[in-house]
Amino acid sequence: MRPLLLLICLLPTWLLADDYGYPLHNPFEATIAGTPVALRPALPDEQSISQRDYSLNLRPERANRLPANFWPVRRLRYRLASQPGPAPLIFIIAGTGAHYASSTPEYLKRLFYGAGFHVVQLSSPTSYDFMVAASPNATPGFSPDDARDLYRVMQTIQARHRDLPVSAWHLTGYSLGGLQAAFVSHLDEQQQSFNFQRVLLLNPPVNLYTSVSNLDRLVQTRVQGIDDQTSYFQVVLQKITRYFSEKGHVDLNAAMLYDFQRSGERLTDEQLAMLIGTVFRFSAADIAFTSDLINQRGLITPPRLPINDSTRLTEYFKRALLCDFDCYLSEQLIPSWRALHDGGSLAQLIEQASLYALSEYLGNSRKVAVMHNADDPILGPGDLGYLRRTFGSRLTVYPYGGHCGNLDYRVNAADMLEFFHAP
Fold first, then answer.
1. Which SUPFAM superfamilies match (predicted)?
2. What is the helix (H) or strand (E) element at residue 372, kind and residue range?
3. How do residues 342-371 score in pLDDT, each as one tens digit?
């Protein structure tokens, strides 16, 4: 194929930089700050949404084995926003470690509810509440198992709200939730509880191991001004303090960060990268600690350690923070996968847990689409090429936005709604 003809064939799936008005061209800034308020879509306010939180008792056998201070998560909670009459329903799967009511699921709820959808918000299978209250194995990271856990939850919700008038079923997820949405959609082709009409993957990992390795490496970024006497957080705090002293008031929000990054105190790329990596490391530590505790593996907490409200967990948390994703993978996930699925090598696990395992299905399923960013730090070499070959015209790539930073940009919001409203 001639180069010019090839370029023309690719144009429908790529939004050129000159045509895209998202203002943050630094992927780390975009990942942290999101979209300036003036560029977000108009959304319904919370008071106008008919919504309620519910809970499911899915793992009653754990009631006597969990520490007393785990009582808030012994039941799996979720949020349902319902329309007054018949409407399509969309499930939203949260990203790594995220709770169903965290900021991104809440934004997506308002977006889809305002467009006439019933909306169900689900916590990530990597969140401690889902691990405790919904997962039989409580060792997330193997996508087929995570999808089965999610699907059981969805089926239970469907049965509980059987009187809700649903005209069609849809599914979306962002970040790791996007990868899991692909596996849930494939599972539904076999079980057909929902027969999803549309499935949208937002900024999903292609190779799960590549993505988590990219994020883990951000913690190791060398930052100027940080040594044994001056911590990263001291440097950042000093910059923010000077910034607010000049402004004369304190206002912590996304717009502040956007303005802050245009001031003389702006964080460097290395400092932003380390901030993103630190957030991910906290999520990984949470996963490692919770999985070890529930399964009583004794890797982080002694198996029969009595934990209650007065137990000092600082030392165990420090131990968990030292365990990056490779540590969790080798000490907990791989042994569990081998025991449950007669698994073999790390390469086999990576293949089975990543989008590669669904290549044929995703290449042929017209209802599944992807929206991603060319500068997303979770992507590795060749990932966009894989998505392009697999999804073709069902792939939309934005030039900027980092990792999920532009989900609340009005252009992206309009594209999402257009996809779900398409015949």
1. alpha/beta-Hydrolases
2. strand 368-373
3. 989 999 999 999 999 999 999 999 999 999
Rg of the chain in Å (alpha carbons): 22
The pLDDT, as a whole number, for residue 104 is 93
Q: Does 75 lie in the same domain as 219?
A: no
Encoding tokens for residue 378? 């979770």
Question: Is there a single domain that holds both residue 275 and residue 360?
Answer: no
Place of tokens 């949260």: 94
Phi, psi of 112 (to 5 degrees): -75, -35
Residue 319 to residue 317: CA distance in whole angstroms: 5
Range of 301's domain? 215-340
H or E, element range at 26:
none
Res. 261: pLDDT tops 70: no
Q: What is the pLDDT of residue 258?
A: 54
How do strand 166-174 and strand 368-373 relate by DSSP bridges?
A: unpaired
Single residue among 320, 340, 360 that ends a domain in this structure? 340
Same domain membership, residue 320 and residue 387: no
Q: CB neighbours of 25 closer than 8 A, spacing ≥ 6? A: 375, 400
The whole model's pTM is what? Answer: 0.87
Give me the half-sphere count of Cα atoms (radius 13 Å) on the Cβ side of residue 50: 8
In order of 15, 33, 48, 162, 422, the CA distances from 118 in angstroms are 30, 28, 14, 13, 17
- The structural domain count of the chain equals 2
Q: Taking residues 156-185, what's their average pLDDT?
A: 98
Contacts of 1-10 with C-beta under 8 Å, sequence gap 24+, read 10/388
Does position 89 have pLDDT exceeding 60, yes or no? Answer: yes
User: How many residues would you count in the chain?
Assistant: 423
DSSP state of 14: B
Structure tokens at 209: 């191991």
**Boundary (domain end) residue, out of 282, 317, 340:** 340
Structure confidence at residue 34 (pLDDT): 87
Two tokens, residue 224: 């100027």
On whether both 320 and 356 belong to a single domain, the answer is no
- Round the average pLDDT of the chain to a whole number and report it: 84
- Residue 48 shares a structural domain with residue 165: yes
Number of separate helices (H) and strands (E) present in the chain: 17, 8
